[in-house]
Amino acid sequence: AQSVTQLGSHVSVSEGALVLLRCNYSSSVPPYLFWYVQYPNQGLQLLLKYTSAATLVKGINGFEAEFKKSETSFHLTKPSAHMSDAAEYFCASSGAGSYQLTFGKGTKLSVIP
Amino acid sequence: DAGVIQSPRHEVTEMGQEVTLRCKPISGHNSLFWYRQTMMRGLELLIYFNNNVPIDDSGMPEDRFSAKMPNASFSTLKIQPSEPRDSAVYFCASSQGDEQYFGPGTRLTVT
Question: Cα(B15)–Cα(A55) distance, rounded to whole angstroms?
Fold first, then answer.
C-alpha cells in the first residue's frame, strides 16, 4: 500500500524567503506524485504533478518540485514566498494509471510580513 | 468551464435528519470522487464512480452513507440518519485522466 508523509504540519517563513515543504512517499514502484494547495474555505487546487517524465516539475504560482527516487522524496519549493502563498499544501501519490490518490496530512504554510 | 459545482456550501442539521449533498462534475470527465475532510483523519476517499458506475465504495463509513450517480452530470451523497461525528467538509472531485479537480466543498455540521 502506498503512503505519503509530510514532515511538519505547520511551516512559517518570512515574506521573500525560500519555501520548502517536505514530502516522502513509500511505494514499491515509482508512483505518480502531486502537490495540491487549499486556500481557506476552498477546495484543493492542483499545483503540479510528476508522472515519470522530467524529475524537476514546474507548477503554477512559481512552485516547483523535484522527484528523487533515491530519497523517495518529492519536496515542494518556491524561491521567494509571497503573502498570497499562505495556505495548506497537500502531497499525494497514486499508482501509474490508478484512480486512487493517497494524501498526506497536509502542511499549513504561514507567511510572515 | 465552471469547475466542479457542489451544493449546498454549508449545511447545518440536527442529529437524526437526512442530509443530501450534491455535485455536478466538469463536463466530459468520466470519473467522480467523494471525499471527506476532518482535522483528525485528513482527506478520506469515500467512493469512486467511473462512467456513472460505483467502482470502489470501500471508504463509505457505514450503511448510513449512500451515493448515487444517475447520469454523467450529477451525483449525490446522502447521510441518513446523520450523527454529530459526520460533521466534516465533503468534497466532490472529477477527472478525465490522472488529475482530479475538486469542488469547493460542503461544510456539514450535525448538532
Answer: 49
Q: What is the rounded CA–CA span in Å between residue A44 and residue A87?
A: 10
Which of B31, B104, B107 comes nearest A99 by C-beta? B31
Count CB pairs under 8 A between chains A and B. Answer: 45
At B29, give phi and psi (nearest 5°). Answer: -80, 140
Query: Nearest Cβ partner of A103 from B43, B48, B55?
Result: B43
pLDDT tens digits, one per residue of B19-47: 999 999 999 999 999 999 998 888 999 99
What digits encode the pLDDT tens for the residues A54-81? 889 999 999 999 999 889 999 999 999 9
Q: Please judge whether B100 and A106 are an interchain contact, meaning their C-beta atoms are less than 8 angstroms apart.
A: no
The CA distance from B94 to the nearest CA of chain A, in Å, is 11
Which among B45, B99, B102 is the nearest to A100, CB-wise?
A: B45
CA distances from B67 to A10, B28, B54 (A): 34, 20, 9
The predicted structure's pLDDT at residue A1: 67
Residues of chain A under the 70 pLDDT cut: 1, 28
